[in-house]
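To the wet lab folks,

You asked to see what we're planning to order before we commit. Fair enough. Below is the target structure as tokens, and below that is the sequence we designed to fit it. If anything looks off to you, flag it before the synthesis order goes out.
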């Protein structure tokens, strides 16, 4: 079992090395921190808060509440339940990586596994796609691309390992999928109310 764990971690470190250290450019060093910043996406959230009630009435308001609940569940699972269990040090705080890490944002003092950014964005992406995707087909690819970009950015800037964002994405997919399923059973956006 220890050999398997070591093998997985060696691949995690190798992939991290390339994503964070080898595959960076001056252009991406400017753009990627912007893409992972929570305030970058504030206009999207504001748009949804206006668009959904305006187009779906009461169900739109319920959708907005479910969107927030989806975020809260995902964030609680990743940041407050799992990170304290695993205690994984972020790459930018790891003393063994200090000479090679390409850290371009403030590191933060929290733990690394799983990535809350990945968990939260995949949860929101899956919730959006699964609730809106039947009416607006292009939501699926855009929502997933959005979550992938944010997750990739976490590794690129040096605050997470690939396994952190992979497991964060897994948590988000389950969370967003479940909340969307519950929402669709009771409040599917087929009709305006």
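Sequence we intend to order:
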């Amino acid at each position: 079992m220890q050999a398997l764990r070591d093998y997985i971690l060696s691949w995690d470190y190798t992939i991290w090395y390339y994503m964070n250290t080898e595959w960076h450019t001056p252009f991406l060093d400017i753009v990627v921190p912007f893409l992972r910043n929570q305030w970058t996406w504030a206009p999207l959230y504001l748009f949804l808060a206006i668009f959904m009630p305006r187009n779906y009435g009461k169900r739109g308001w319920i959708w907005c509440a479910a969107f927030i609940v989806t975020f809260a569940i995902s964030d609680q699972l990743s940041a407050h339940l799992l990170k304290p269990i695993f205690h994984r040090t972020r790459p930018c705080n790891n003393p063994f990586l200090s000479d090679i890490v390409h850290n371009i944002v403030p590191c933060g003092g929290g733990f690394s596994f799983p990535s809350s950014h990945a968990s939260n964005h995949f949860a929101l992406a899956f919730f959006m796609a699964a609730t809106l995707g039947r009416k607006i087909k292009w939501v699926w690819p855009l929502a997933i691309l959005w979550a992938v970009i944010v997750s990739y950015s976490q590794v690129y800037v040096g605050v997470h390992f690939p396994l952190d964002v992979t497991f964060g994405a897994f948590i988000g997919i389950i969370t967003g999928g479940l909340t969307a399923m519950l929402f669709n059973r009771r409040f599917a956006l087929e009709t305006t109310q």
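Structural context that might help your review: The mean pLDDT is 92. The longest helix spans residues 42-86.

Thanks,
Computational group
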